[in-house]
Design goal:
The protein is flat. Helix 4 runs antiparallel to helix 5, helix 9 packs antiparallel against helix 16 and helix 11 packs antiparallel against helix 16. It folds into three domains: about 45 residues, Roll (Ubiquitin-like (UB roll)); about 90 residues, Up-down Bundle (Receptor-associated Protein), CATH 1.20.81.30; about 240 residues, Receptor-associated Protein (Up-down Bundle), CATH 1.20.81. A hairpin with a 5-residue loop joins strand 1 and strand 2. It contains 16 helices and three strands. The longest helix is centred in the middle third of the chain and has 58 residues. The chain has a three-stranded antiparallel beta sheet with strand order 2-1-3. It is mainly alpha-helical and about 400 residues long.
Length: about 400
């Protein structure tokens, strides 16, 4: 699908407008403009420059689009008109381009779910499933609102986790910068002072001098090694064993494993609740919700449960004792089976996980702060012991 910049007149008012449109060819683009009531004056294919590649679709862009689209559809506007209106109000070029492609597909007769499905890099499986379910059931506006609400919750949740990690990372960065500065600027002066006076350096200072000499002599080698290690790890994490190793590490890493397990369970339960409430079948719900957890190890447990459900087991029994599936999930599923309100019970489980996640984020922030202070104290102690004390000792010996 190509993108064309156009200049056209509205056939009814004669007003000149400019914009972009998605189409397979220039001829198709012109026909689409005519179908919309425009008289094309010029059409020019646009390239994909470097700036456009940087202009990616963010979670906020997707949420805003979903909210606006849901409002217009809920107000009774036709889908094509709703998409066109949202496109005109969208400032992000990448999002605008996606909306225009969807609009072009819809106007050519393609189903809305299939039109969205052509953009898997923007709309995930959960999004597409809810679009299709809403399209079939006639509750598209409600499905869209649920999608936007869930994405807002997930974005807010990830924002809290990132905020909790920001300060420790900044503190660690400051510690590293200060340490390197002391190694390159202060330690050499202490070494020079002792050498000029013919005194022997203390053991700790000698160790700092050795570190300084290594940094000066082999900084380029250290950078090369670090670069290769980073590239190697990044490439490994793209492989199947690497993805699984990363997923397992996240579920078991000290301090963070409880928080991440709660995050995966909150995602799974919330997505399952939304899908079931819109009429998606249980097996499809398990497949989509397991994938939405965004951890392949958790997904494997959900897939194993889905196979047992297909074999005749109840959902609660199938999820019971599966690795990394929290007991709250199958307990609430059992209540849902008895009451006939499975989606509602899973929604309550998701709320519990989300509330506990907030508490764990706050607890983790409180735990990390003293750890970073201890690390800062250790570094400061090393520098004081290796730099200041030798200077004081040298002054006292001279005095």
């Amino acid at each position: 699908m190509k993108r064309f910049a156009y200049k056209a007149k509205e056939s009814s008012t004669g007003k000149v407008i400019k914009g972009t449109i998605q189409a397979e060819t220039e001829r198709v683009a012109g026909k689409l403009l005519v179908d919309r009531g425009y008289v094309p004056e010029s059409l020019k294919e646009e390239g994909s420059g470097f700036g456009e590649k940087l202009n990616k679709v963010t979670a906020k862009d997707r949420i805003n689009f979903t909210r606006q689209f849901a409002t217009l559809v809920g107000a009774g506007l036709p889908i094509a008109q709703s998409l066109r209106t949202v496109s005109e109000q969208t400032s992000n070029k990448a999002m605008k381009s996606v909306i225009e492609e969807i609009l072009a597909d819809v106007e050519s007769g393609r189903a809305l779910g299939d039109s969205f499905g052509k953009h898997p890099d923007v709309f995930n499986n959960v999004y597409l499933s809810l679009i299709k379910a809403g399209e079939v059931s006639g509750t598209l506006d409600e499905s869209l609102r649920r999608i936007a609400t869930q994405e807002e919750k997930d974005d807010k949740m990830m924002g809290k986790i990132k905020s909790a990690m920001a300060m420790p990372l900044i503190t660690l960065g400051v510690i590293i910068v200060v340490f390197i500065y002391m190694m390159l600027e202060v330690v050499p002066h202490v070494e020079s002072l002792y050498n000029d006076l013919g005194e022997e350096l203390p053991g700790l200072t000698l160790a700092l001098v050795a570190i300084k000499d290594f940094i000066i002599a082999f900084w380029w080698l250290a950078l090369i090694v670090i670069a290769f290690l980073v590239m190697g790890v990044m490439q490994f994490l793209k492989t199947e064993p690497g993805i699984r190793a990363s997923a397992t590490f996240k579920l078991n890493v000290p301090m963070f494993n409880g928080l991440l397990r709660m995050l995966y369970m909150a995602r799974f339960a919330r997505i399952a609740q939304i899908l079931l409430s819109t009429g998606v079948a249980v097996l499809d719900t398990l497949e989509i919700a397991g994938n939405a957890a965004n951890n392949v190890v958790v997904e494997d447990s959900v897939k194993a449960a889905a196979q047992e459900v297909q074999g005749g087991k109840t959902l609660s029994d199938a999820l019971r004792d599966k690795p990394y599936i929290d007991p709250m999930v199958y307990q609430m599923a059992a209540i849902g089976e008895q009451s006939g309100k499975m989606d509602e019970m899973l929604g309550k489980a998701a709320q519990v996980f989300e509330d506990e996640l907030d508490e764990k984020i706050a607890t983790l922030s409180a735990m990390i702060e003293p750890v970073m202070m201890i690390l800062l104290a250790i570094v400061a102690g090393l520098l004081v012991g290796g730099v200041l004390f030798p200077i004081y000792a040298l002054v006292n010996s001279i005095g």
